[in-house]
Design goal:
927 residues; seven-stranded mixed sheet; 34 helices
Length: 927
């Protein structure tokens, strides 16, 4: 990498734009060669030669166009063959853009080619079936002059029966291998020879920053053997899905038996068995490519099955023979119905108790996500959450939970009988939304429970990561400090929106499974144990819950007592190629054997006995895709999000009325200790992005874009509906003055162009309306913007549970029996309704009796419950409700008013509670 480009390359968006930036470089190069062809002369040739030198350093890390074509291109430039250069660059650029080089023999040739290269590319023979293409990174100490010959030797190993085909990419150092792994998303396998040097021949500050932040490589202090193993571990840190093979001329038996070499799939003695290496590479890809359930479902659909079970659409006869619904078959096609069944025989397996291909598919998903166990769920993450909570929580357990979490967690508390103790997220009042829950708040809740003698009942912490609006927790730190207070606390991370993050080296450490893996290793390190002993000297082995210093101290865990118990749910359908309602439960629990039976019972309770086979199949397929191309797809999604941010916020017209909020808007400065401002702010590079993701309490997921529309005079719901009705743009969440956009692996640059064009059109219409309407229109517009952006209601916090739903109303801890309140509302005689704007509400707020909610009240937006069963309703909550101007409020019927629990019912509960308390005291006294 040239020094001139090194500064530019460190920009954070440059990391994610590898594939797109490469295509852009070739297009720029093509334009330069065409200019040269039109105007032959030294200045044009010099410009072409300069561009080629800058491109050449990047092309070392890709199989195509390869050494032969690049050498030919170099020769044509040197010989001043402008026409030949332009023609060859045109061919290469087109092949890269369409990816035709993966299947088209001609793309690898040039006009002077005289030898057959039919063994070079997939599908070269007429009528040959399509074979997926990938690239293998060979890290070899051989001289670069030998690489072309080595590549030809590898191609000779190909056989017609191979299901896949690969092209080799050769690098010759540790640093270049890491760079190749980062840059080339087509690399699926890394083959490491011993004897490689450390330093790259490329001058790459970006690489050095990456090594410093992620690999902590010690460079020249390692022997060549240690360097090879360190490289294997480093590659796995970047892309854990890759297969790694080691070729050594030492005692391969000892290397293979080294427990630290578990990241290596197989060790070879490097002077023998090249065919075995070739077959092992293909076999490893087959292991990831195989989708046990989907593969079997395809076979099942081709069999002649007689169906005598309760599913008429199976085989499609009732549809394709119909006089009235034949269009259904035309629309969906025959395969959908051939692949339907209500049977679990014939290899289809049972989702409730899988023993065959569903179990194998779930095991593969566990490997892919870094979990010990995975469960497929076909009725959404709402069900996944309730499964986990029913399995792990019992009546009377205390469940610490973000009040703003998805409603399924609140219902999980109702179903399990656990007592929710709500912890509050920081507010973003200006945008009518909440952020995430500060660690200090969580620690205080746990220490208060300890002070009250209830810590043993604190069973689980439930948090949403990332939040709907993109705040990402420092998962490692949250779990570590909570475990320092309660060593066996169970964590449920609702990562409904964050399942894709496993395949980003930036985000992975902030996922539940990624952080659990880090902690698992950390707790085994002698240095960590020593640091814990130092903490004991300062605070004692038993932390004093009344010591205020604990709230501001980075607490460490007792490695001898900790039990790492982590659960993660993800909505696979939200960020991967899976049908709607496809979800997974991921488990990494040291004590899972103690809850396995009840976990299966929860599955039996919530999972359908008639699961959708197509959803199961796409869960299987989604895992395959992410293991084979997730890294590349996620990088592209992140890059597209950065493109939207940059284009909207820098566009001279759009930025007058719209803005995408940055990390500094979404996360208060006190939670960004590194001083990080935003991903695209001046001076930000991807080393600073790595630092914020490693250290700060919260970070922002850039793929979730909060677009402020209030400054254009639109509330969120109005703008969302306009985009859908007038421009065919769909989005999800809204707030009072913003909408939430989300990029994912399905988006393209064309989608981004469409969005930008629409925003330009809307901005022009606003400009014209203001210009043509005169002062009256401008004043009305200003008043509308002020109403949306400044006159925003304060967000209500959770107040408290009514004393009749509290075990000890005087306790400093605020957990409550929401289950009893919820089911208390099932008897109409125990409930009453009051109109929202009635004077009775104001009178009772002042004089009593207290207003107590009988149900969940969830306005959309903001989409979180502002009232839960048993909650005391405050003036703050009523004021917020009265100022709401949204149409959708779940749990509230304006014609009836607020549904409340009657004071008489609450009083009777208090009496019963006192009687029970008295009986308990007598029992204890008698004992």
């Amino acid at each position: 990498m040239s020094t001139a480009n090194s500064t530019k390359s460190t920009r954070v968006d440059q990391f994610f734009t590898m594939a797109e930036a490469r295509l852009d470089r070739w297009r720029e190069f093509l334009q330069a060669t065409k200019n040269w062809e039109r105007v032959v002369g030294h200045p044009q040739q010099s410009a072409v030669a300069t561009l080629f030198r800058e491109m050449r350093q990047w092309e070392d890390f890709f199989a195509y166009p390869g050494l032969a074509l690049l050498r030919t291109l170099d020769e044509r430039i040197a010989s001043e063959d402008a026409r030949g250069t332009a023609r060859l660059v045109q061919s290469i650029s087109a092949a890269l853009l369409t990816r035709s080089y993966r299947t088209n023999l001609a793309d690898w040739e040039h006009e002077e080619t005289t030898i057959s290269l039919a063994d070079r590319v997939p599908g070269a023979e007429d009528g040959a079936p399509y074979r997926p293409y990938f690239e293998v990174l060979f890290v070899s100490p051989a001289r670069p002059a030998m690489f072309l010959e080595l590549a030809q030797d590898l191609r000779k190993l190909r056989r017609p029966q191979d299901k896949f085909v690969y092209e080799p990419v050769f690098v010759s150092s540790f640093e270049d291998a890491v760079l190749g792994t980062i840059l080339n998303g087509s690399v699926q396998t890394v083959v490491i020879y011993e004897g490689i040097p450390f330093a790259s021949t490329h001058n790459s500050p970006v690489l050095r920053e990456f090594l410093t932040n992620h690999l902590a490589a010690t460079g020249n202090s390692l022997t060549s053997g240690e360097l090879s193993l360190a490289l294997a571990k480093g590659v796995k840190l970047v892309r854990p899905e890759l297969d790694i093979f080691l070729l050594s001329d030492r005692a391969v038996e000892k290397i293979a038996g080294d427990v630290s070499a578990d990241c290596i799939r197989r060790v070879f003695y490097q002077v023998e068995e090249p065919l075995e290496l070739h077959l092992s590479i293909l076999d490893a890809i087959q292991d990831r490519y195989e989708t046990p359930y989907f593969d079997n479902l395809q076979k099942y659909a081709q069999r002649p099955i007689g169906t005598f079970h309760a599913l008429p659409v199976a085989r499609g006869k009732s549809i394709f023979k119909s006089n009235w619904i034949r269009d259904m078959g035309t629309f969906y096609g025959i395969n959908l119905f051939l692949a339907e069944s209500s049977a679990t025989t014939g290899g289809l397996d049972s989702l409730l108790e899988p023993t065959g291909n569903i179990k194998v598919a779930q095991d593969k998903a566990a490997r892919a996500f870094g979990a010990d166990h995975v469960f497929f769920v076909t009725n959404g993450t709402s069900t996944s959450n309730k499964m986990v909570e029913q399995a792990l929580l019992a009546p009377g357990d205390i469940m610490l939970v973000d009040r703003n979490c998805h409603k399924s967690h609140h219902y999980g508390a109702v179903l399990s009988g656990a007592l929710p103790l709500y912890v509050e997220a920081y507010p973003l009042t200006k945008y009518s939304m909440y952020g995430a829950v500060p660690l200090r708040t969580i620690k205080k809740a746990l220490l208060d429970l300890k002070a009250a003698g209830k810590l043993d009942r604190a069973r689980m912490l439930v948090l949403t990561n990332c939040t709907f609006d993109g705040q990402i927790y420092n998962v490692e730190r949250v779990m570590e400090e909570c475990l320092a207070i309660k060593p066996d606390l169970i964590f449920l991370w609702d990562e409904a929106w964050f399942g894709f993050a496993r395949w980003s080296p930036f985000y992975r450490r902030r996922t539940a499974m990624g952080a659990a893996a880090i902690l698992e290793n950390k707790f085994q390190e002698p240095a960590y144990r020593q640091a814990y002993e130092d903490q004991v000297k300062k605070f004692g082995a038993d932390l004093d819950p009344n010591d205020p210093a604990l709230l501001d101290t980075r607490l460490l865990v007792n490695p001898s007592k900790v039990r790492l118990r982590v659960y993660q749910t993800n909505s696979t359908h939200k960020s991967m190629s899976c049908l709607r309602q496809g979800s997974m439960v991921l488990v990494k629990d040291q004590d899972y054997n103690t809850v396995e039976e009840q976990f299966h019972e929860a599955v039996f309770t919530h999972a359908s006995t008639s699961p959708n086979l197509q959803i199961i199949a796409t869960l299987d397929i989604a895992r395959r895709q992410m293991e084979l191309e997730g890294y590349e797809l996620v990088n592209r999604a992140i890059q597209l999000a950065l493109d939207i941010r940059r284009e909207v916020n820098s566009h001279p017209l759009i930025s007058k009325y719209f803005r995408v909020l940055g990390a500094d808007d979404m996360i208060p400065a006190e939670y960004r200790a590194t001083g990080f401002v935003d991903y695209l702010s001046p001076g930000a590079n991807w080393a600073t992005a790595v630092k914020t993701l490693r250290e700060d309490e919260f970070a922002l997921d850039v793929t979730r874009l909060t677009l402020v529309c209030g400054s254009a005079g639109f509330d969120g719901t109005q703008f969302k509906n306009m985009l859908a009705a007038d421009f065919d743009i769909q989005l999800n969440k809204t707030s009072r003055n913003s909408v939430l956009l989300q990029t994912n692996i399905n988006n393209t640059r064309s989608d981004i162009a469409h969005l930008i064009k629409v925003l330009v059109e809307i901005s022009r219409k606003i400009e014209k309306r203001l210009a043509d309407g005169g002062s009256v229109v401008r004043e009305a517009f200003g008043a509308r913007v002020k109403s949306l952006m400044e006159d925003v209601p304060n967000l209500p916090n959770f107040s408290q549970f009514h004393s009749s739903f509290r075990e000890d109303p005087l306790s400093v801890t605020s957990e409550g029996d929401m289950r009893s309140a919820f089911f208390g509302a099932y008897r109409e005689a125990q409930c009453e309704h009051l109109k929202l704007f009635s004077s009775d509400i104001d009178q009772r707020l002042k004089e009593g009796p207290e207003l107590v909610s009988a149900n969940f009240v969830i306005p959309y937006p903001p989409g979180f419950p502002i009232m839960v069963p048993g909650q005391v309703i405050t003036a703050e909550t009523i004021e917020f409700m009265r100022k709401l101007d949204v149409k959708e409020i779940h749990g509230f019927d304006a014609s009836l008013g607020l549904k409340l629990l009657k004071p008489s019912f609450l009083g009777a509960r208090k009496v019963r509670n006192k009687v029970e308390e008295s009986k308990e005291i007598k029992r204890k006294t008698a004992a």
